[in-house]
Amino acid sequence: MSTLLSNRNEVITQTSELYQFMATGCKPRKRWRVGTEHEKFGFRKKDYTPIPYDGPDGIRALLEAMAQQFEWQIVYENNHPIALRQGAASITLEPGGQLELSGAPLRTIHETQQEINDHLSQLGRICREMDMAFLGAGVQPKWPMALIPWMPKERYRIMGEYLPTRGSLSLEMMTRTATVQANLDFSSEADMARKFRLSMALQPLVVALFANSPFCDGQPNGFLSYRSHIWHHTDPDRCGWLPFLFEGEFTFERYVDYALDVPMFFVYRQGAYLPAHGVPFRAFLAGRLPILPGEYPTIADWELHLSTLFPDVRLKTYLELRGADAGNSASLSALPALWKGLLYHKETLEAAWELVRHWTPEEREAIHRTVPKMALHTPLPNGKTMQHLAKTILQLAKSSLEHQDCRNHKGCNESIFLKPLELIANTGITPAEKLLHAFHGHWNHTIDPIFTEQEFESFYAEC
């Protein structure tokens, strides 16, 4: 979840200004880019325990070392380093100490992979000095919430008080989950709607392909993507698959109307977060926010509020596609490659939509509820399984990336980054199922080997 604040102080009083703001995201095709964000769990190599914030081997020391050695700029909150900035990229902290790289918007997936490798190389150097490492998984596999340190960020304190009133697993979402997500552009309102609908319809497929969270508290949890199950029990006001997206015409106005009625967590004033106590943004727009009586919001307030909505696909001035479990290094570029293939080629987008457009709301709901447990074995309305859809969708994405023909220095196009997903789809075996096989096999029913076998390292795709 984004934690860096906007500085746009234009006051807004009309909903039309919000529609216009969303429309500023429209850009011509030549300016389309792909951004990739991923989260990971830090641990001490001596005993696999989570990394605390303070101390010589803590998150604070890690951020300060990154800044000193690699020219990142530190972002502070109440004298605590909470993030790093470098150009259009940032490194931020999730509530339980998960470290997130929010990458720059880049033209090709080759550039994305290089950005990830550079980040992992820098991080690896600091980790070797501090005897720590990072794990790629959708859910913290071993340690209970009571042993996970909270980061000293005021927004997380407010969220941690509010969210348990809305969902039974909300604190697990904050402290024990990690994801990889892709951010993509659109050219117009109609283009946004087409991309939003397809990407929302295919989020269960992404959950299945990237399922990588079968453990918690050191034991199998009965799910292949427990992370996805957790999100189903976080907050119904701001999470889920947005059924209205598939009802009639979808516009910026429709999304704004949804966002206006989502309860607010907080506002930011004079260096502090003020709890909004669940008052909807619509009241703030009318000057009726109790903690700021008579005051109207700014664009920065709106951007902050948008960042606290957590549907499976989120609209800002670009689309954030959010359904995947975090995984190993190869999976980090596979996700943006998949979406670039599907969404940045008109004919491919239309062909993919034809495969899922006829699902009813009841069928979509059933798929969303089933896929965290069954992944690629999830039955679909046409009598086939998610595995069959995965093979078809991946072939479409591959052909699209071959058509887009963005090549690296070896002459390889971006379809090379789909190879890990093609293997999963062809075998029907998800990362989670591989981990369960190891747990019941050579791991001898202990979870500790996951910390070495899933530890992050650089990845180089082969042509």
If you compute it from the alpha carbons, what radius of gyration comes out, rounded to the nearest whole angstrom?
A: 21 Å
Q: If helices are DSSP runs of H or I spanning 4 or more residues, what is the number of helices?
A: 18
- Total beta strands: 15
Question: Gap between N and C termini, in Å?
Answer: 34 Å
Poorly predicted ranges: none
- Average per-residue pLDDT, rounded, comes to 96
Structural class: alpha+beta
Oligomer: single chain
Question: Beta fraction of the residues?
Answer: 5-15%
User: In which range does the helix fraction lie?
Assistant: 40-55%
Largest sheet data = 9 strands, antiparallel
Q: What overall geometry do the principal axes of the alpha carbons give? A: globular
Write a structural description:
There is one protein chain. The chain has helices at residues 15-23, 59-70, 109-130, 154-162, 170-176, 189-201, 203-209, 226-231, 252-260, 281-285, 299-306, 329-343, 346-356, 361-374, 386-404, 419-427, 431-440, 450-453; strands at 34-44, 73-77, 80-86, 89-93, 99-102, 132-135, 179-184, 215-216, 219-220, 239-240, 266-269, 272-275, 310-311, 313-315, 319-325. The protein has 463 residues and is α+β, with helices and mostly antiparallel strands. The strands form four sheets. Strands 1, 2, 3, 4, 5, 6, 7, 14 and 15 form a nine-stranded antiparallel beta sheet that branches. Strands 8-9 form a two-stranded antiparallel ribbon. A two-stranded parallel sheet has the order 10-13. The two termini are 34 Å apart.
